[in-house]
Design brief:
CATH class of the largest domain: Alpha Beta
Strand content: 25-35%
Shape: elongated
Number of helices: 3
Distance between the termini: 43 Å
Structural class: mainly beta
CATH architecture of the largest domain: Alpha-Beta Complex
Helix content: under 10%
Oligomer: single chain
Length: about 425
């Protein structure tokens, strides 16, 4: 059965520069020759892929033929199917999944070239051939690959390029994912990779007061899982690391405020240095502010409504000043202890209200094209998200965007940290 380890998710491993990828995995299941007269061979290696860092290569396939990668949480005994053996069979305990890349020929992940070497379709590999396994398995919802867990892979293809033919199968390959050299501090929540529609087409009148800067709505892919603080950085946390507390409203569990973007960056830099010295971070990872796309993706947590609690935001849902849905004041003055309201589906608190949260990006208008891991640099102002105790419900919307100079520090500006790949703003 699939066992979700208590260890951390196996994000892409940051290997030392110049490291050589070593073949990994154990083959299982008998392999039958395909129409080329050879068995289709599946091999894997860490250190050359993205996502989970596992890269799969396939050779001796039928030239011109499309192929699918199969993944399973158990290695089963296999069932004879046509020209080979299906090594991953769905049972009462075993699960089997197929990788598809939407919009590609036959929604497949690749095809074999004239030499029988598997060539990836756009977006499935960073090395030109084969397949980079993401850090999630495509279940419903996607299943994050956990460090220390073993997953099993196989490739299926037919033996004729242009018509239905006998099915061929590669060997099965069992791969155990190593422990990721990243240990998050307490209070971090793992956020899986995924895609979402960023922005909002809300109308200009009440209750949403939609604005052009959230348009056009466009598809965004977050290609790697990351960790995010379950709550905004508190005054106690800031004081312990930085030796000071700039906040106007005093309380150890209140979010730190009156912090500029520069201050928030300095905190993340200090936290990174502390954890690196403790041996808890691998090269290539850091504590930093979230990108604007990471923030909205995490805030929505799979929702498509204007708020992650639904289409309306009432005073009981978050710390903010006025609800355009009940047309009433919430009577707030100042922030509230973090975690005082319910968490979203990812386990994150106060993504609506309390204090505005700095993002890493410079502010810029959106484009209409689908993008992967967007990140804007070089502009004069920095993005803020989430609204605050001082603002009305409209400003708390998942898609609402605000910006200030990176030197601004007001009593309703705070932040939360993520643990993810290094980005330079």
């Amino acid at each position: 059965m699939l066992q979700l380890k208590s260890t951390i998710p196996a994000l892409a491993l940051a290997l030392a520069s110049g490291a050589i990828a070593q073949n990994t995995g154990t083959s299982f299941c008998n392999v039958t020759n395909n129409s080329t007269g050879q068995p289709t061979t599946l091999t894997g290696a860490f250190g050359s892929g993205v996502g989970s860092d596992l890269h799969l290569e396939v050779t001796q396939g039928v030239p011109g033929e499309l192929a699918y990668f199969l993944a399973g949480n158990e290695a089963t005994s296999g069932v004879t199917v046509s020209n080979g053996v299906l090594c991953l069979v769905g049972t009462g305990t075993a699960q089997m999944f197929r990788y598809n890349i939407a919009g590609s020929p036959s929604n497949s992940v690749g095809h074999f070239d004239s030499s029988g070497v598997f060539q990836n379709l756009a977006g499935t590999s960073s090395t030109g051939s084969g397949f980079d396994v993401p850090d999630t398995i495509p279940g419903t919802p996607p299943i994050m690959i956990m460090s220390g867990a073993t997953w099993h892979f196989q490739v299926w293809h037919r033996d004729t390029p242009s018509a239905q033919g006998a099915s061929n199968f590669s060997n099965g390959l069992s791969v155990t994912f190593p422990l990721a050299p990243v240990v998050p501090i307490a209070g971090m929540v793992s956020i899986p990779a995924g895609s979402f529609d960023m922005g909002s087409n809300a109308a200009s009148g009440a209750p949403y007061w939609g604005y052009f800067n959230t348009q056009p709505v466009h598809n965004v892919t977050i290609s790697e899982a990351f960790w995010m603080g379950a709550h905004e950085v508190t005054q106690a946390e800031y004081q312990a690391l930085m030796g000071s507390n700039p906040s106007l409203f005093s309380g150890p569990n209140l979010p730190v405020e009156r912090v500029s973007w520069n201050d928030a960056r300095a905190y993340c830099t200090a936290l990174t240095a502390q954890e690196m010295a403790a041996g808890n971070l691998a090269t290539g990872y850091e504590y930093r502010l979230p990108t604007e796309a990471e923030w909205e993706y995490a805030c929505r947590a799979g929702t498509t409504t204007e708020f992650n609690v639904g289409s309306d935001l009432f005073c009981a849902d978050a710390r903010f000043d006025y609800s355009y849905h009940s047309n009433s004041s919430c009577g707030t003055w100042g922030p509230i202890d973090v975690g005082s309201y319910s968490a979203n589906a990812f386990g994150l608190y106060d993504m609506h209200g309390n204090v505005w949260e700095w993002c890493l990006d410079s502010y810029s208008d959106y484009g209409a094209a689908a993008v992967t891991d967007p990140f804007v640099t070089g502009g004069p102002s920095r993005v803020l998200r989430g609204g605050s105790w001082y603002y009305a419900s409209v400003y708390c919307r998942s898609a609402y965007r605000h910006s200030f100079s990176p030197s601004y520090s007001l009593s309703h500006l705070g932040f939360r940290a993520v643990l993810a790949r290094v980005l330079v703003p």
